[in-house]
Amino acid sequence: MKSQIITLQERVHAAPKPESWQWDKLHQVFRVRRGNKNTGMREDNLLSLSYGRIVQKDIETADGLLPENFEGYQIVEPGNIVLRLTDLQNDKRSLRQGLVTQRGIITSAYDAVEVQRDNDPRFWFYSLLALDLAKHYYSLGSGVRQSVKFADFPNDWVYRPDLATQRRIANFLDRETARIDLLSEKKQRLVALLADKWASVVENAISTKGKRTKLGHHIDILSGYAFPSSDFSTDPGNIRLLRGANVSPGSIRWDDTVYWSRDRLGEVSRFLLASGDVVLGMDRPWISSGIRVAEVTEQDAPALLLQRVCRIEPRTTLDKKFMKLLLTSRQFLAYFEPIMTGVSVPHISPDQVNSFRFEYVERGEQFRRATSAERERERIIRVQQSTEKSIDRLKEYRSALITAAVTGQIDVTAYARSGTPDRRLDAIQKEMSA
Question: Is residue 35 predicted with pLDDT exceeding 50?
Answer without folding.
Answer: yes
